[in-house]
Amino acid sequence: MRAYVYDDIPGDQRLPHDSGNPISLNTLGELGVIYKTIPIDEDKQWEKEIDVFAKERGYKNRDQITVTPEGLGESYETKIKSFFDEHLHEDEEIRYILGGSGYFDVRGLTGQYNERWIRISLEKGDLIVLPAGIYHRFTVDEGNTITAMRLFQDEPKWTPYSRSAADTDARPARSQYIDEVKAAVGIQA
């Protein structure tokens, strides 16, 4: 995993867009992002570690998704662009990368990163938890392939609320997220 400030230079979203300004795990933590590395090994010890992590956090369900041009066919480019639309969810978004690689971009909320995109580059063995209410987007990288395990606290659902919608900022998950981040960094809500 590598995290850095997105360079905001127009171009293919699958390119690194690395500004050269690294972001620490501590900064990601202040945004409520949880990161772990769980190496995928031949003995499948990683499966046990995922089971323990899921139990600790109350994730009851899981599935697997593979995003490739071959798998999605003609809808691939359209689907990738839809994943890249800035949005939030009312539940945590949990991904464990089983193969391939890609990027999650999250919006900074305070200080020098307020409203800046922070790009998180993920590959095989990386696990990320995005908190409910965080604005984010996703894309594969230039390899055009990723396989991820998705974990859910309840029945699998994935409802994105686009930031461009008039009522998204007013969603309860968003205001709760803002309050939690401000409390974590010591800002009065």
From TrEMBL:
Positions bound to Fe(2+): H87, H89, E93, H136
Alphabetically ordered keywords of this record: Amino-acid biosynthesis, Cytoplasm, Dioxygenase, Iron, Metal-binding, Methionine biosynthesis, Nickel, Nucleus, Oxidoreductase
Subcellular location: Cytoplasm; Nucleus
Catalytic EC class: oxidoreductase
Pathway info: Amino-acid biosynthesis; L-methionine biosynthesis via salvage pathway; L-methionine from S-methyl-5-thio-alpha-D-ribose 1-phosphate: step 5/6
One GO cellular component, as annotated: cytoplasm
Entry annotated with the keyword Mitochondrion: no
Cofactor binding description: Binds either 1 Fe or Ni cation per monomer. Iron-binding promotes an acireductone dioxygenase reaction producing 2-keto-4-methylthiobutyrate, while nickel-binding promotes an acireductone dioxygenase reaction producing 3-(methylsulfanyl)propanoate.
Catalytic reactions on record: 1,2-dihydroxy-5-(methylsulfanyl)pent-1-en-3-one + O2 = 4-methylsulfanyl-2-oxobutanoate + formate + 2 H(+); 1,2-dihydroxy-5-(methylsulfanyl)pent-1-en-3-one + O2 = 3-(methylsulfanyl)propanoate + CO + formate + 2 H(+)
Record-listed E.C. numbers: 1.13.11.54, 1.13.11.53
The UniProt record lists the keyword Nucleus: yes
Residues annotated as binding Ni(2+): H87, H89, E93, H136
GO MF assignments: acireductone dioxygenase (Ni2+-requiring) activity; acireductone dioxygenase [iron(II)-requiring] activity; iron ion binding; nickel cation binding
Cofactor(s) required, per the database record: Fe(2+); Ni(2+)
Principal subcellular localization: cytoplasm
Protein's GO biological process: L-methionine salvage from methylthioadenosine
UniProt cross-references to PANTHER family, sorted A to Z: ACIREDUCTONE DIOXYGENASE
Protein purpose: Catalyzes 2 different reactions between oxygen and the acireductone 1,2-dihydroxy-3-keto-5-methylthiopentene (DHK-MTPene) depending upon the metal bound in the active site. Fe-containing acireductone dioxygenase (Fe-ARD) produces formate and 2-keto-4-methylthiobutyrate (KMTB), the alpha-ketoacid precursor of methionine in the methionine recycle pathway. Ni-containing acireductone dioxygenase (Ni-ARD) produces methylthiopropionate, carbon monoxide and formate, and does not lie on the methionine recycle pathway.
Family per similarity comment: Belongs to the acireductone dioxygenase (ARD) family.
UniProt name for this protein: Acireductone dioxygenase
Organism expressing this protein natively: Kwoniella heveanensis BCC8398
